[in-house]
Amino acid sequence: MKPFEYKFSEKLDEILDILSKFGPEAKILAGGTDLLIELRRKPAKFPKAIVDISYVKELDGIYENDNHIILKPLSTHTQIYKSNVLRRKAYLLSEAASQIGSLQIRNRGTVGGNIMNAAACADTVPPLIALNAEITLQSINDARILPLNDFFIKPYKTKANPDEVLTEIKFSALPENAKSVFIKLGRRNALSISRLSVAAVLQQDDSGKILDARLVPGAALPTWRRVTEAEEILIGEKPSMELFRAAGAKVSEVMISYTGRRWSTEYKEPVISALVRRALEKCVMT
Amino acid sequence: MKVNIKTKINNKVYELSVSPNQTLLHFLREELGLTGTKCGCEIGECGACTVLLNGKAVNSCLVLVPQIHNKEVLTVEGLAEGDVLHPLQKAFIDYGAVHCGFCTPGLLMTSKELLDENSEPDEVEIRTAIAGNLCRCTGYIQIVEAIKGASKELRKS
What we know:
The complex is a heterodimer.
Chain A: E1 5-8, H1 12-22, E2 26-29, H2 35-40, E3 49-52, E4 62-65, E5 68-71, H3 77-82, H4 84-89, H5 91-98, H6 103-108, H7 111-117, H8 125-130, E6 134-138, E7 143-147, E8 152-154, E9 157-158, E10 165-172, E11 178-185, E12 196-204, E13 210-218, H9 228-234, H10 241-259, H11 265-285
Chain B: E1 3-9, E2 12-18, H1 24-31, E3 50-53, E4 56-59, E5 72-74, H2 87-94, H3 104-117, H4 123-129, H5 140-156
Parallel strand pairs in B: 1-5
Antiparallel strand pairs in B: 1-2, 3-4, 3-5
Helix pairs in contact in B: 2-5
């Protein structure tokens, strides 16, 4: 590994100050599960400084405040899937975290890193977008709140400035009668990277009619977003195989409207549609 | 530029001045001579370099050495107590779970975290826990049996 300056602090203020000095020449280190691999690949633009935020206590933890969940960015995937609050109030997020990498990766990888690295296969992002999460970005002089679905530009590219730190992820708890799932399709079971995934939320009223539906495919669109075109098909209707199939077909149609038909479309088109149908069925059956 | 760190490795306190641009794996093997921890893929896929960091299994190839500051590291060398093998080590021998041996240190460390947190894991829990440790001799059945055996042994004591 090439030499770099290693900077760390337990205080957020000091971290922000260091970042403001190094600007784009610094890279933030949290769990390191992506950054260390990148550093060893000898990137053309090797960072001058590595700024370790993993000792900042105020950036760690999962809190419940009224009906809001506050997820601090240093929360590891292990912390997320072991959290009872998240299991009860944002089940799809625990489900996604439990399927990431391996035990070793889940023990180290953080939700903040997953978001900021912005790989197309980031598994915590589709659930967080389905939860309508907002994020706080803080720099030495400023703090701003962005909806997560407005944060990504393209894979590995976000709207964060080099001097900003992700300090908070916030979302409303799902209503008690809402069901949610995360389904991922990898090339194998262990340590798999998502080829395609679907995060889904479904809420029905007492008569069985669908009140709320949220569908976010992963690794399918240029950036993540709720596929409202498909959600609209579901709202106000009663669940049926046909309805779920139509929603699946719509997600696949939307995907192709972005990507065009390419070599992988023959595979992705039926698969994403089946994953959506399966996710919705799982919501109704559990 | 060196970084000063304070850490505990295999229950021994160290105050060190380290070059930050190295992984914990490299540091353990090359600077401390603790070569029980194996270097496999170096991209966090194979688990051969697994150690415990504050009791949690991590790939030491993905930890930057200053990140062990104020933390405790346990490597396979710290598993036995003197001449007495840890029940996991004994079970790996008894059940024939050591083949070429390269994945064994990593598997022992991952299994240690599993048994520390769950004294009676079932087959699925064991297989989920060790999914990040590849055995290219593919002797997983003996490995799973050994972990089950060790968990029984530990519950007795």
